[in-house]
Design goal:
By secondary structure, the chain is mainly alpha-helical. It has one domain.
């Protein structure tokens, strides 16, 4: 399951918790919602850019292709490191 899947499951469990009302089952459903929300956050943190792109695509938004920065290591070292 990816981050979006975890997020959707968290929403489902949260809705079940609200529908159940005040009981031990509602507490269990709210706990499950929290677990899935935490897993969604972990997935987003692990690869935030890919998660954002997938979330945008899932919501029907256009996503720009990924840009890869090319850095010359010699020029970078010369500019940022003392000799």
């Amino acid at each position: 399951m990816d981050g979006i899947g975890y997020f959707k499951r968290a929403e489902e469990w949260a809705e079940q918790s609200r529908a159940i009302g005040h009981s031990e089952d509602a507490i269990a459903a709210a706990t499950a919602a929290q677990v899935f929300a935490t897993l969604a956050l972990a997935a987003a943190t692990a690869d935030a850019t890919a998660f954002k792109r997938a979330l945008a695509r899932a919501n029907g938004l256009e996503v720009e292709p990924a840009r890869v920065a090319k850095v010359d290591p010699v020029a970078f070292a010369a500019a940022h490191l003392e000799a």
